[in-house]
């Protein structure tokens, strides 16, 4: 794998691995309540998202951009459904993260540096493959931060290790 692409893959994997580690460190006696708890209830942009929603959405976005847009996989993503997700079993999310990790690796393995400048037409605009990859890195890191803050709010200032 070319160094630039390897570096991108490492960063995507790093953010996903941190999301996984956070989820795996959640107190088992509080599952699934902690996975579905929202710090601020509400509708649309006036609500916050749960840890479960953030994990499902992050995996869904990675699948869409890397698997579908770059890799040409058939469209399967339902973005709106990601934000309605209610997680009853942590293993569901972990499996989803594993599936998208394998999918991303498979796509990134065949990419060459020349592919990074290829243009994809997505949602009415043209973006390069490089832009897509950088967007996923940024998007995953953003939601990892949201997840870390949501966990901190869950513990409500009690003494607890932050994952």
Characterization of this structure:
The structure is a single chain. The chain is mainly alpha-helical and 163 residues long. The protein is 60% helix and 5% strand. The protein has 6 helices and 2 strands, in the order αααααββα. β1 and β2 form a beta hairpin. The radius of gyration is 16 Å and the shape is globular.
Give the helices and strands as they follow along the chain: HHHHHEEH
- How much of the sequence lies in strands comes to under 5%
Contiguous uncertain segments of 5+ residues: none
The main β sheet shows up as: 2 strands, antiparallel
Mean model confidence by pLDDT? 94
State the strand order across the main sheet: 1-2
Radius of gyration: 16 Å
Q: How many β strands by DSSP? A: 2
The class by helix and strand makeup works out as: mainly alpha
Overall 3D geometry? globular
Range of helix content: 55-70%
Number of helices: 6
């Amino acid at each position: 794998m070319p160094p630039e692409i390897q570096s991108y893959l490492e960063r995507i994997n790093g953010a996903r691995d941190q999301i996984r580690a956070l989820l795996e460190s959640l107190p088992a006696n509080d599952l699934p309540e902690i996975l579905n708890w929202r710090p601020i209830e509400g509708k649309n942009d006036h609500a916050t998202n749960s840890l479960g929603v953030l994990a499902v959405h992050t995996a869904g976005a990675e699948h869409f951009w890397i698997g579908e847009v770059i890799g040409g996989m058939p469209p399967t993503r339902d973005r709106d459904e990601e934000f309605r997700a209610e997680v009853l079993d942590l293993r569901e999310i972990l499996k989803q993260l594993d599936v998208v990790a394998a999918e991303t690796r498979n796509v990134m393995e065949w990419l060459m540096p020349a592919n990074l400048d290829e243009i994809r037409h997505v949602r009415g605009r043209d973006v390069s493959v490089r832009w897509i990859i950088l967007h996923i890195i940024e998007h995953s890191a953003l939601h990892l931060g949201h997840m870390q803050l949501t966990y901190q709010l869950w513990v409500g200032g009690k003494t607890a290790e932050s994952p």
